[in-house]
Amino acid sequence: MTRLEGKVVFITGIARGQGRSHAVRMAQEGARIIGMDICDQIPTVFYPMATREDLAETERLVKEAGAEIVTTVGDVRKREDIERALDLGIEQFGRLDTVIANAGIMPVIGPGDQPQAWHDAVDVMLTGVWQVLDVTVPRLVQQGTGGSIIITSSAAGLTSMGLNTFAGQAGYTASKHGVVGLMRLYSKQLAKDSIRVNTVHPTGVNTPMVANAEYGEFVNTHPEVANDEAYKNPMPVELIEAVDVSNAMVFLASDEARYITGITLPVDAGYNNR
């Protein structure tokens, strides 16, 4: 039997990158997947965001792994979108076991209205996470069978990353720290219901959020705010792969981690141990 056999997992930001990787790995372990993604461009985000075609590819890969999947296009900044995605998934699968609040953006450089970049970062990665919890937790409590909630934070949620204080960078860092507070609050409140809540903190991951021409050019042309030493991992790897994070997610979602709650789990090649 696979590690997540019979479990239903709800993942935000599923169309590509880490979200897609989490969906495929959990499908390989026997889970059924509920997913949502904005599939649209937020103006302050400097790299091209995921598309409906990306979402369709995630669906294909999950099915290829032998699992069922239900997806919707939706924005975690809109509570009604989260409710609609969850309702459609539960209508199909009948239950919910794991929530992965993964949707994220990195509006840390231009172009765009930079003060707005602060608001977009916080709205997606802090308020959006809270809204995901606010929608999903009552369902998990009502079921009475426990569950696992995993929030994607960052190495930047345990320490500062980068040397600039641009609005988007500040919003990103504040949000990734902020979800740790949410995790600690919810993990204490939900322990009596056997619902575990944890955060995962990756270093730089080889996804389109980081591995894109625009960010590469920024790093090359702004050494004063993108010093290579500020991002360097102690272990000899520049960027980890999305599956490295997914493997940690699978563990936290599985019964192997049934008594693990309230932790900040780094998957960071030693970044926070420098």
Structure description:
The chain has a single domain, classed as NAD(P)-binding Rossmann-like Domain (Rossmann fold, 3-Layer(aba) Sandwich). The model has no long low-confidence stretch (mean pLDDT 93). It has 8 helices and 7 strands; from the N terminus they run βαβαβαβαβαβαααβ. It is α/β, with parallel strands linked by helices. The radius of gyration is 18 Å and the shape is globular. The protein has a 7-stranded parallel sheet, sandwiched between helices. The N and C termini lie far apart (39 Å). Helices cover 43% and strands 14% of the residues. Helix 1 packs parallel to helix 2 and helix 4 packs parallel to helix 5. Strand 1, helix 1 and strand 2 form a beta-alpha-beta unit. GO terms for molecular function: oxidoreductase activity. InterPro entries: NAD(P)-bd_dom_sf, SDR_fam, SDR_subfam_1. Keywords: NAD, Oxidoreductase.
